[in-house]
Amino acid sequence: MAQFNSFCSEDYIKSVTPISRNLDIAEILPFLEDAELMVIREIIGKPLYDDVKVKFLAQNLSSDEITLVSYIKKAVAWRASEMAIPFLNVKIKAKGPVKMRGDYEDAATLSDVKYLREELRNKAEYYEERLLDYICKNSSKFPLYGDADTESNITPTGETRFDGDIYFDDNYSTRLNYLYGKNNPK
């Protein structure tokens, strides 16, 4: 299996999120991929995501793309942190789920974990909104934004939002909702 190369480095994640410096980054890595593919790619669309990712890995970004990646990195770091929380203390082993115990720590309660996840989710959504605002205001600089990928049917959620029978136009201004599947009514 090929290694996933994220927009975020270990040092970046540990410097912008409350993830502890002594946490093994292997605990977060699977969630970086999930955050990028399930959230960021949905926001900006697969064609733009793929293009920016290739340029990022080749270190060949334009100044506008560097700004775009700065928004992407913040959103990915916070969303991956939020996604990882339930799995940092509970591991799935051969015998089933087990709760990890430190020598001198008290385990967080379920309400503590829920609160922490909510705070991380709020931060992630804030940065995702900033990414969406930036890409919408500068869509002329990103011609791939708005392009549909016919293979995966992933189109950006920024301009129109569609979920089943409910259509939200550009004036829909409540919290950013992630809509999976067909999200473009055109």
Written account of the structure:
The protein is mainly alpha-helical and 186 residues long. It has one domain. The chain is built from five helices and four strands. It is elongated, with a radius of gyration of 18 Å.
Total strands: the figure is 4
Number of domains: 1
Q: Can you tell me the overall shape?
A: elongated
Largest sheet: 2 strands, antiparallel
Quaternary state of this entry equals single chain
Q: Roughly how many Å is the radius of gyration?
A: 18 Å
- Structure class: mainly alpha
Beta-strand fraction estimate: 5-15%
Task: Output the strand order for the largest sheet.
Answer: 1-2
The whole-number mean of residue pLDDT values reads: 78
Give unreliable regions as ranges. 159-186
Number of helical segments with 4 or more residues: 5
N-to-C span: 36 Å
In percent, how helical is the residue content?
40-55%
Order of helices and strands: HHHHEEHEE
Task: Kindly list the characteristics that best describe this protein.
elongated, 8% strand, mainly alpha, 186 residues, single chain, two-stranded antiparallel ribbon, disordered C terminus, two-stranded antiparallel sheet
Element layout with pairings:
Elements: H1 10-16, H2 29-44, H3 46-57, H4 63-89, E1 90-93, E2 96-99, H5 110-137, E3 161-163, E4 166-168
Antiparallel strand pairs: 1-2, 3-4
Helix pairs in contact: 2-3, 2-4, 4-5
